[in-house]
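Hi R.,

Here's the chain you asked about this morning:
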Amino acid sequence: MNYTIVDFISLLGAVCLFLYGMKVMSEGLQKVAGDRLRNILGIMTKNRVTGVLTGIVITALIQSSSASTVMVVSFVNAGLMSLAQSMAVIFGANVGTTVTTWIISAFSFEVNISDYSILLLAVGVPMLFMKRSTYKSLGEFLIGFCFLFMGLDLISKYVPDLQSNPEMLRFVTDYASMGFASVVIFFFFGIILTMVAQSSAATFAITLIMCSQGWINFSLGCAIILGGNIGTTITPILASLSGNLAAKRTAMGHVLFNVIGSIIVLCIFHPFMNLVADITAACIGINPNDITAAEEAGMADSTLLNPKGGLTAKAQSAIAFGLAMFPTVFNACNLLIMIWFTKLYVKVVCWIMPAKHKDEEEEFSLKFIGRGMLSASELNITQAQKEIAVYGERVQRMIKMARNLIHLDERSEDYSYTYNRLEKYEEIADRMEIEIGNFLNHVAEGRLSPEGKMRIAGMLRVISEIESIADGCFNIAKTLNRQHANHVKFDPSVLKEIDTMYDLVEGAMNNTLEVLRQMETPEESRIIKAYNNEREINNLRNSLRDSNIYNINNKEYGYQEGIFFMDLISEAEKLGDYMLNVIEGVKHQFRPAAES
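And here is the predicted structure, written out as tokens:
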């Protein structure tokens, strides 16, 4: 026996190189097309047909159904896409992922890409040092492409040869000759393998090697790929765990689509596999089943088997073509049937995962983001933007509560209720800042374009300023508590002046919210209005400060009343400053990225 532990470790290294190449290639393409993909998904999911086409195109571009499905889960989580729209995109993603299998199949045996890998690396590596981020991302794609096929070539080199080491793989052949039971066994093997690798393309590549080396026949290779179709759902499931109910339902829809289709095909496996074999024979002139028959009979067919009993390059190409054809036909048939039951899918998913009864605490949970959805970093930015807008809306309620508190009797139940509610909102605001900040930091650890990193920095500044607004609102409540503890009452004329100031503050906050809702492309008029609002608040503060000194000197009201009056006015003026800081963050961090 000449297969050593070094060969086995080398095999593991080759698999790792293949997986790393797949990861780098996919991430490079995602970085190039991040913003474009976001726009495409927003525009092209208006109906089932365009949704399916979008899923096919995007998955074909980024070479990963897991990544595109995670994007869809993220978009549903962010409220950018309905559950029904997401189903169509997921259906298309399952077809789009077959492009990767065709690339691997086409270049595996007919052309040895690894021979040209050094030349491609000579092009890709220098691109990493170019100034433009697009060129850097394309360089990453080329490097990943090279690593993928170098790994595939090394896998072929280091897998044990069945003819030379039959005793090593006897357990495989034992399970390969049990009829339909073998199909079921390798079907579950495909599920487990894909869940571990989190890549159906990796499962395809490993299956291709197993078939070409004679470990298993064509039908069992199809069984592994069929199982991989279910295993690939693990990634969106993990991505949805920290998402909202809509995100979880989207992941469940993906699971249902793949599981139902796979089980149906498993029930008619041999007829379906024979159909794929016939299509392969019609396309390239060789039926993969004939190769299996030749291997089992030990026929001396120079076109299919070499003198040592292994497959010829022509037979290997036919197996590769057939294995690529199998998921293509399966996913296409699954799509053509299931697309007509989209509404039923949505109803079934909603029945499986019903909405929980809404309690008060649910109102304050994060709506659009979760730590689980980080596989497509560029696209997580949209989720954070929408969550920041919700953050601003909740803090706006605090301004209204603080203003109402000024007019309430401190001995009334309404005062206690409003104060406690304001205190709770302040705690929620602190928690939201931490949650959004942690999410943005996790996203920043991913592979982002320079524009994406600039947006992350801007959003971190924005959430910090929004939290300062929340603190300011609660400071108003604490000032009122001190006022009541000192038994100080405001005259109606003083309350009127306070209301005038808080009218300006509420108007400024309304304008700030509109800017947050249009964070990437805020209207220039709203930016100008924000500066005008802040200037008006400052001017009114200065005017009220002067009149306060005059009124105290002329005994219009007492010194303590004047102090608390100016404390409330100063807190309001600080709120205006924080709002302008939010606008500054949006203006300088987001608009340049949107315009470029």
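One quick note: The CA atoms of residues 53 and 92 lie 6 Å apart.

Cheers,
M.
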